[in-house]
Amino acid sequence: MTNHYCDLKNADVILIMGSNAAEHHPIAFKWILRAKEKGATIIHVDPRYTRTSARCDFHVPLRSGTDIAFLGGMINYILEKDKYFKDYVLNYTNASFIIGEDYSFNDGLFSGYDAQKRKYDKATWVLEKDGSGLPKRDMTLSNPRSVFQMLKNHYSRYTLDKVSSITGVSKENLLKVYEIYSATGVPDKAGTECYALGWTHHTVGSQNIRTMAIIQLLLGNMGIAGGGINALRGEPNVQGSTDHCILYGNLPGYLKMPSASLESLDHYLEKYTPVSKDPQSANYYSNYPKFFVSFLKSLWDDKATKENGFGYNWMPKMDDGKHYSTMHMVDAMYEGKVKGYFCVAADTAVSTPNSNKVRKAMENLDWLVGENIFNNETYEFWRGPGVDPKKIKTECFLLPASATMEKEGSQSNSGRWVQWKYKAADAPGDGIPVGEIEIKIMAAVKKLYEKEGGPNAEAITNLKWDYLDSKGHMDVLKVSHQINGRFTEDTVIEDKAKGTKTEFKKGQLVPTFGNLQADGKTACGNWIMSGSYTADGINKMQSRGKEDPTGLGLFPNWSFAWPVNRRIIYNRASCDVNGKPYNPKRKLLEWKGDKWVGDVPDGPWPPMADKEKGKYPFIMKQDGVASLFGPGMVDGPFPEHYEPLESPLTKNPMSSQLINPAIEIFKGEMDKVASASEKFPYVCTTYSCTEHWCTGALTRWQAWLLEMQPELYVEISEQLAKEKGIQNGARVKVSSVRGEAPCVAMVTKRFKPFTVEGKTVHQVGMPFNYGWLFPEDGSGGDSTNMLTPTAGCANTFCPEYKAFMVNVEKA
Ligand SMILES: Nc1nc2c(c(=O)[nH]1)N[C@H]1C(S)=C(S)[C@@H](COP(=O)(O)OP(=O)(O)OC[C@H]3O[C@@H](n4cnc5c(=O)[nH]c(N)nc54)[C@H](O)[C@@H]3O)O[C@H]1N2
Ligand SMILES: Nc1nc2c(c(=O)[nH]1)N[C@H]1C(S)=C(S)[C@@H](COP(=O)(O)OP(=O)(O)OC[C@H]3O[C@@H](n4cnc5c(=O)[nH]c(N)nc54)[C@H](O)[C@@H]3O)O[C@H]1N2
Ligand SMILES: [Mo]
To answer: Would you say residue 424 lies in a domain?
Structure first.
């Protein structure tokens, strides 16, 4: 989240699109309801009517997978009707920048496309620079090559007729949402967006979010109280797990995982350290070497020296151009390339797309290790439906883990608040925290390498690995100190601007990431967490102060929010170029002539009107401004509508490109894809229900939850039920080109047929909370992922669980 839960109460309009917040994020939803009580308008855009829709002002149904078309239409509306916030757009975004002559967009393809590789070369997606290396700008926004004009041109194609025909949303509904939402493009109104899986589970997932980012920038809704783009995160502490690098391309704090061609530390740092010639751009990532070198020091301590590039060559490297997502991991298992699998606190056999393939892939493993509080379908795959245990060679282990409330540590909510929690009870039996399991396994591996050597042995034998306490248990404080960072030698830090010198002793904790060093004087496991402790060792994650000096619900003394306890990121953009709040009634920050007052500002520098010392507001961006034109994505600098991998259409109404041209197509024998046909005529989406948790591996043990939601079902509209002669409660077979899911039909008013390109398109929906292992009599059904394709977002490989084609027949 750019903002945080409590801040949702400050919004005038809340667009919930791609989320079922009332059922899956009840705490966030509490704040949404507070906004509503104060008069805010709450809009829900979702293919299906849910408990969230019921509490909103109104619900707008749209066909799954068409959000970019819907939002592209909104961009067009905002620009056509002059609803954008001119001062903000001009000063704080790259609207005035000039796009290079060689960039083009033609019939669904951006320049630089290689059809063979299904990849773009982004060399032409650039902004022009003048002779001194500064971006060329046209402050009148009239240059036809300006980002503003190119944006306008790109989205002029998203007319009401087109958008309505693609999305299945009526023109009245489109206009209603566009009008209400774009009314927040004025200084004293704030609009926010809440999304979750309805946006991420698509082959265009990242671009769904970017389209909204463009809208928020046009309306001046970024960096303000009640604004922003707010991802309501999923699993408990999933925010913490991404902060600490659960994703394959990241190191802690979103530093980049090195790839093979970056052969030396210098090479690597040069690639990832942005340079700006503009003195007004803070370009904060120019500090990247400090964060990265400190990270290397946290791994190898005094073994990491300047001479050996701080151990850079010990780092594992990704092969260039290769990806390592869950789907790729399964693919490699299927091909017999991956031999062992640690499945920690997950139920891959149920949760990962194309379950038939996943389960087949596991048969190729030599060993599988689970670390869990319960058994599940993954650990028991060797005796699953249709599997002959005698033919399976895989050795399976299930290690007993303690549950979250049986251990102490930090936990991060979606709003980046890192809160300390305490152990409430001892784990039963032999259960210990998964962290302790990993520490002990790695310690044993280290011993083995010390004795026997092996490939890249120094990476392991040199590891700093002292995270157990005197009783042999995981020492969470040691771990969290290591994450915060410490000085590795006595160090004097000079602040030239303030004219101060501060002395730190070796071993002392680093007070903020501003103190991290690129010369090995600091070690820090995760730079964004620097400052979670004070230099004197006070744990700020334990803070529970309820003061709220701004009245905006920032609660600066409650827990620690990364970065540096900033509650709303990009907050300098809430003020005009002189540092005066755009909206004095919701004053997030104000420049008082010598300092900022309010939230922790995005850097101490004066506002940008001070041409000498002032900085632009988006300090993490190379140019200091936010990107309407965003060359960071692999599938285009402006989001474009493409159909899902499986779609009811044979032609994309926007262009000749039916699907996202930059997604990877998995070509294994079990990766079948259906084109639009009579065989699989219905759009299917999947989701969770309130009564279960994800795969249900946690909740299907509970008799009372099973009583409420006993088995797999498919929600179908009354119209489709009538067409197919299916009664409510009848047994049906849902099938895709990849598999079948027998279940019960739930005939409902929550789904309504769509009119798409002049034809009736039915959409159905299914929860994904079931598996064969329990309830033990098999009455729950099996995984919905028997149906889903191995396909994912071009940028993240988040799977396309939310739109694919099925058939529904009476069983
Ligand atoms: N009780 C309970 N709470 C949970 C969970 C749980 O299993 N049970 N799971 C947790 C986890 S891990 C997560 S990630 C979150 C998930 O939270 P949510 O994202 O809210 O969960 P979903 O139900 O997967 O999907 C949200 C909505 O997206 C809609 N949708 C489907 N396709 C599209 C589309 O193309 N466009 C749009 N705009 N909407 C679409 C669906 O109809 C659904 O209502 O919830 C967390 N909270
Ligand atoms: N079709 C479809 N598939 C989906 C989704 C969808 O919307 N549609 N959603 C996707 C999403 S967003 C997610 S997050 C994944 C979830 O997929 P998984 O992570 O595979 O599923 P969970 O059910 O959350 O699995 C949790 C496991 O962790 C164990 N567990 C619970 N608490 C603890 C604990 O404290 N310690 C330990 N060690 N173990 C514990 C549980 O017993 C369970 O076995 O599914 C994805 N799959
Ligand atoms: Mo999730």
So the answer is: yes
Minimum-distance ligand 1 atom for the alpha carbon of 238: 12
Instruction: Note residues around ion ligand 3 (Cβ under 5 angstroms).
Output: 234
Q: Specify if 203 maps to a domain.
A: yes
Angstrom distance (rounded) from CA 218 to CA 224? 13
Range of the domain at 722: 682-810
Q: What pLDDT score was predicted for residue 595?
A: 96
Q: Are residues 279 and 373 in the same domain?
A: no
Position 617 scores a pLDDT of 97
* Residues 423 and 531 placed together within one structural domain of the fold: no
Q: Is residue 435 part of a domain?
A: yes
Specify whether 311 is located in the same domain as 335.
no
pLDDT < 50 regions, the chain: none
Give the pLDDT score at 180.
Answer: 98
- Tell me: cis bond preceding 606? Omega within 30 of 0 counts: no
**pTM here?**
0.98
CATH number at residue 438: 3.40.50.740
Q: In what order do the strands lie in the sheet with 417-421?
A: 409-412, 417-421, 560-561
Mutation choice for ligand 2 from 329, 694, 701, CB with most ligand atoms inside 8 A: 694
Tokens read off for 587: 């004053």
Of residues 177, 202, 153, the one with CA closest to residue 18: 202
**Does residue 481 sit in helix, strand or coil?**
helix
Q: Report pLDDT for 503.
A: 94
- Euclidean distance between CA atoms 61 and 55, whole angstroms: 15
**pLDDT at residue 497, as a whole number:** 75
Closest protein CA for atom 34 of ligand 1: 64
Dihedral sign from CA coordinates of 535, 538, 540, 546: negative
Q: Which of 456, 485, 510 is the last residue of a domain?
A: 456
